[in-house]
Amino acid sequence: MIQHRAAKWAESPVSEWRRTLESLLCCEAQKQGPTFVSLDQLKQTITGYFEVASHEESFVYQHAMAVVQPSLGAAYSYDSGIALAGSYLRRMPNGMQTPHCHQFYIEPVWHWQGIDAIEGPCIYLPFACFNNFGHFVTETISYLWAFTESASEIPSCQVIIGGSSDHDLARLVAQLIETAGHQVVFEQDLPSRFLAEQLYIPSSTFSLHNKVNALYLKTAQAIGRLITKTANKKDAASSSSSLIYLSRSKLPTSLRTILGENEIEANLAKRGWQILHPEQMPLDAQLNAYSQASVIAGFEGSAFHALAMCETSTKSPLIVMMGDALSPDFLMQFSCQGLNGYYARCSTPQNVKDIGDLHIETRQLDYSPKEITDTVHRLALEELNNVKFL
Fold it and tell me: Sign of the CA dihedral 112, 117, 122, 125?
């Protein structure tokens, strides 16, 4: 008998969630000055749309006779040509978006019998991104648990990773993998299509706009320890303030700069805040500053994802985030990490020609720099003094 199954969502679950978020932000908004809504309230909106698991969850996909073709973003069955489970990056609820898998099927051909092959077992990482920090610290790290945890089902073998080997983050990942007893092979040094007789693929522990579990956080912190352990001690100088503002003002104008942010920074600096430009700092210096901070403020950006690499054994910083396009990925991370704080919608895209470019468009402020500065600093004082100002 065929039974009708009701749809879980009436439309795109992300669109549905955004409407829920919008209702909450509009309900809390006030006419005078920016309104900061607690992250605890916002975290509640992701329930039913995105998964946050407090337990550690991982597994390893095992495939025999896999044809790997990195340019297509997947590995394929030698016999059927169908893309293999776990071999391509997935995002969105239920993993319904596969942004880098360009084909789910390639036709098996007779000359595969002469294909270059990697003998014995090897490990394949579906997504290794080194030129975009936000995607590295979320999605690439999500596969690296296999080299920080005891993965007894994976023997010591070659590990195939994409991207260029000539990058600090690539060298960091290579160090992690080699310390775990494996050999690193970059795709750039392999044929464009090759056969893996035994292919192991670690599962993802952080799928954007989809789900995260505690093992992602544990892995990110292990990588944070590796960064600080191998750092130049001069780079890891102590932070000069417990109040940190993460600036976007020195980023290229093509990467979501905020008009008027310089004035916010100047106002905060006069009140004792340290203004950081993460893209100009070594990673160890960033992590050192974040770990000493009591309050971390700024507009939405990947620098906030770097907090996942900080240890949480000591008191966690208060997060004061601003923007206009809050990503559920931040709420998922903060929920998993136990970080609290506030969020305010206080900017607007200046000129949106293509909705696909919304996340990189220049922003203009909805309130004066002074109004924003006053509210951010008040929240910081409340955190430092453990009092509420009326």
Answer: negative
